[in-house]
Design goal:
Elements (H helix, E strand, L loop, with lengths): L8 H8 L1 H30 L12 E5 L2 E6 L6 E6 L6 E2 L2 H6 L4 E7 L1 E6 L2 E7 L3 H4 L2 E5 L6 E5 H7 L6 E6 L2 E12 L10 E4 L4 H5 L4 E2 L1 E6 L5 H11 L5 E4 L10 H4 L10 H31 L1
């Protein structure tokens, strides 16, 4: 069996070209770090998904543009830059009436989601109108009116309250007593939110801390209405409003996982971009290894 003896190339590189050896070592280490990080991001991106949950049953959703746009120059030198807004932009509630008049629209429901506190417990608050597209249903009692609230089973159990009882809740307007008008079962659009409370739609914007604004507007279609035609009709009805009309519930109105990225902070970057970074880093690493080795072999032969 032929034995392989060390040729001393690595030792010679360290002895006679320490700078090249150190540079190669650092380049390889950094390349390994970049490839590992990109690999983790690529794997996470491939497995991650943003399903349509809250607006899955709404064929058309109206949302606000989540970017500030700045146009500079004109003609051939015209350019537009976009900056992600630091907070979620909201739409005017008044747009619901205009959207509801679009051909094929059954109703347009403003949606509100906001935090609610009860002593040491936290609840998720909504306007009762959202039950039309989330699937929430009353199990007892009636829909909430001004000064009333509907609780799900978890919230009612934590508050030890039933229909007709009074609970003290903290919202953006402060602490107030609410009469429990009913109990409800959360729908598919509410299932991931924990204890939930529904309030009268007229009071929900104030409780959310944004009077006159809604997180989004869900447009429901009449039986047999074409979704694409409905989206086009709503878009025409809202011309000049600055709102974005989404013909599918999967888009930006969940409201921001895809807009702000999977972390909730940055714009979404497709997984293949991470793969491209990893491939580029691998190529640079191979180049960093090949060039010093080739130079060392040339010097040795010479």
């Amino acid at each position: 069996m032929r034995s392989f003896a060390p040729n001393g190339l690595a030792r010679a590189a360290v002895r006679f070209k320490p700078a090249a050896f150190a540079g190669t070592f650092v380049a390889l280490m950094m390349a390994a770090l970049i490839v590992s990080a990109c690999g983790i991001l690529l794997e996470t991106g491939l497995r991650a998904s943003v399903p349509a949950e809250r607006y899955a049953k709404a064929p058309v959703v109206v949302a606000a543009d989540q970017y500030a746009r700045l146009v500079t120059g004109s003609g051939d030198s015209r350019s537009e830059s976009t900056v992600l807004l630091p907070d979620t932009a909201r739409v005017d509630i008044a747009l619901a009436d205009r959207a509801a008049r679009a051909p094929g629209a059954e109703a347009a429901v403003p949606d509100f989601t906001f935090p609610v506190r009860r002593d040491d417990g936290a609840l998720t608050g909504h306007g009762w109108g959202s039950h039309a597209f989330t699937g929430a249903t009353l199990t007892s009692g009636a829909a909430p009116r001004t000064g009333e609230v509907v609780l799900d089973a978890a919230a009612a159990r934590a508050a030890k309250a039933g229909v007709g009882d009074t609970v003290a809740l903290d919202t953006a307007t402060g602490r107030a007593d609410f009469r429990v008008s009913g109990l409800a079962k959360a729908g598919s659009g509410d299932m991931a939110e924990g204890p939930t409370a529904w309030f009268a739609d007229a009071q929900s914007p104030a409780f959310a801390g944004h009077p006159g604004k809604a997180d989004a507007i869900a447009v429901l279609a009449r039986d047999g209405a074409d979704t694409e035609a409905l989206a086009a009709g709503v878009k025409k009805a809202l011309t000049g409003s600055g709102a974005i009309v989404l013909g599918t519930a999967i888009a930006a109105a969940t409201l921001t996982p895809m807009m702000r990225g999977l972390t909730g902070e940055d714009p979404y970057i497709p997984p293949l971009v991470y793969g491209a970074f990893a491939a580029a880093a691998t190529g640079l690493a191979l180049l960093a290894v090949a060039l010093p080795a080739r130079a060392a072999l040339r010097d040795r032969k010479g």
